Amino acid sequence: MFDIVFKNLLARKTRTFLCILTVLAGVFLVGITIMMNTWMYTVMTNELGRYMGKVYVQQSGSGYPPIDSSLPETVADDLLSQPNLGINVVESTPLLFLRVERGMMPFLQAKVMVIGVPVGSETVLLDDTEAVTGVNHFDTEAGSDKAILGEDLAQTLAASLGGVIQINNHSLKVIGILEKSAMATVNISAVVPLDTAQHIFARDGQISALLLTPKDVLQTDQMAAVIQGLYPSLEVSTQADMLQEAQKVMRTPLMYMSTMGITGVIVAVIMIMSTMLMAVTERTREIGTLRALGARRGKIVGMVVLESIFLALFGLPLAIGFVYAMSMVTQATSPSLELIMLISLFAVVAAIIGGLYPAWRAARVDPLEALRYE
Amino acid sequence: MNGVAVEAVRGIDLKVDSSEFVAIVGPSGSGKSSLLHMLGAMDRPTSGEVLFDGCSLAKMSDGQRTDLRARRIGFVFQTFNLLPTLNAYENVEIAMRLAGTGRPERKARTDELLERFGLSQRAKHQPRYLSGGERQRVAIARALANRPQLLLADEPTGNLDSKSGMDILVLLRNICTENGQTVVLVTHDFRAASFADRVLVLRDGRIRGEASIKGAKDTHKTLSQLLELELQ
């Protein structure tokens, strides 16, 4: 009965079109909610995964990345010079995070960043992120106007190896472009020598945070507790602490987005139900005729539900297209096949729920009453 | 109706033989359509029973009665009741689709019926582009699609001009004569009833008179006598 259902939808083009638009909007909201929630969660876990077995010291309440944190560099000197704290000095480094351009996401808060790291400590920040062109470290020249670009930043600036970029009216020569890192902050950053970053942004003698590696990874929590005791005004965090804090930050936007998505589904269900109820009422005589001709109640139910599903499915390709477009705009990851299947399932379930009551009404149509219907 | 019991028909004792053409005549509100609906398994009597080929319709489930209508009973309505989104071909075919007939057989049967009723050139037209007579012929073709044993026609000429109405009545007569199908026609028009083998007069829900026209020496006189019964 696919052809009959299709013709019924075409018979009321405007109403069908409006219903499809509403379903499209609802499915789009669901898709974008799931995609953004998944993306933010992935970014968060990838970013913070880097800090397993590390301790992060920054100004209290400054969030992550600690763009708003400001510590005197002497704190780093002091901590790294203490032999009894169990700090692996070689694998620890001060860092300076600076925002060049704001971002949309509540977790990252930046679209373009600069990370200042002391010459020789690049691998502490970058871990095993290699350069696809050039190098992933500075040579021994401190204060040099050189930059190593994250993959996303290189694309944003259309920068190439040996080229020059402008940061805060300051020219920097690109000596390396990194591969895609698990850390989103690295991908959107220009990594420069610490003193260069301090000079460009007039933050001489200041850092944002200290990234500390314990000599014994099993002593991470203890080391964090000792340092917190020594510097009660600072925020000393392990990976677990940072994850907890990040989840708190993301809770509200995730809740708003989830509410948006749920609202989208409800609106789609109501629109389908409303459209199909109108259709069933208008076609009471037709339904009665079909019953008189020998259509069982189950067949009538099937036709109405199928019509509802068609309404949802017609809007689905466009909704998926809009989700793709949104992922491009926000530079989130493209929707996966699993996500597409999930939002398709949402659309079908919304259609079935929206169509059930009208289908029940249609199945109850008495052929006799319908044939008398004017 | 509105909480008040209305007896549409009462005390009906009717037997329709196979291949018989019976006309049920009566004024508006006489109960003839109610009787037809009971014969067509669309309504159930409050008391008594309706037997189709010896099987009681009251003992059938809704699904069984629906299947009966699909396969063994054909309906022709005064208002045609064609599906507006389907063309003439599809309207005839739908009856077979509901009965579960396979595609090749559906096509052959639909083509045959459209040809027989002079509708081949109009097959792709939707009902709104067909004349009243053409619509009723599509409806009759649909009713015959599954080769039903019983064809029930409720005022099939009610919305047609006299010429188209006459054509339809001739068709119904030929269906009975040539195909051996049983036809029950409900009408308020005695001229239409004259095409039948037997005429029943219904008034106030009861059979007031009955006469066999087939083989009658003076059909006109027989019908006149029945008309008097209706008017009494």
Number of separate structural domains of chain B:
2
Query: What is the CATH topology of the largest domain in chain B?
Result: Rossmann fold
Mean pLDDT of chain B: 87
Low-confidence stretches of chain A: none
| Number of helical segments with 4 or more residues of chain A | 13
Question: What is the tally of helical segments of chain B?
Answer: 8
Structural class based on helices, strands and sheet pairing of chain B: alpha/beta
Q: Whole-number radius of gyration of chain A?
A: 29 Å
Based on the model shown, name its key terms.
heterodimer, A: 374 residues, alpha+beta, 13 helices, B: 232 residues, Rossmann fold, six-stranded mixed β-sheet, two-stranded antiparallel sheet, 16% strand
Characterise the protein shown here.
The complex is a heterodimer of chains A (374) and B (232). Chain A has 374 residues and is an alpha+beta fold. Chain A has two domains: 2-43 and 250-372, no CATH class; 53-237, no CATH class. Chain A is 56% helix and 16% strand. Chain A has 13 helices and twelve strands. In chain A, a hairpin with a 2-residue loop joins β7 and β8. The longest helix of chain A is centred in the C-terminal third of the chain and has 44 residues, at 239-282. Chain A is elongated, with a radius of gyration of 29 Å. The two termini of chain A are 26 Å apart. Chain B is an alpha/beta fold. Chain B has two domains: 1-72 and 150-232, Rossmann fold, CATH 3.40.50; 82-147, no CATH class. Chain B is built from eight helices and eight strands. Chain B has helices at residues 32-39, 62-71, 88-99, 103-116, 132-144, 162-179, 190-193, 219-231; strands at residues 21-25, 51-52, 55-56, 73-76, 150-154, 182-187, 198-203, 206-212. In chain B, the strands form two sheets. In chain B, strands 4-5-6-1-7-8 form a six-stranded mixed beta sheet, with helices on both faces. Chains A and B meet through α1, α10 and α13 of A and α2 and α3 of B.
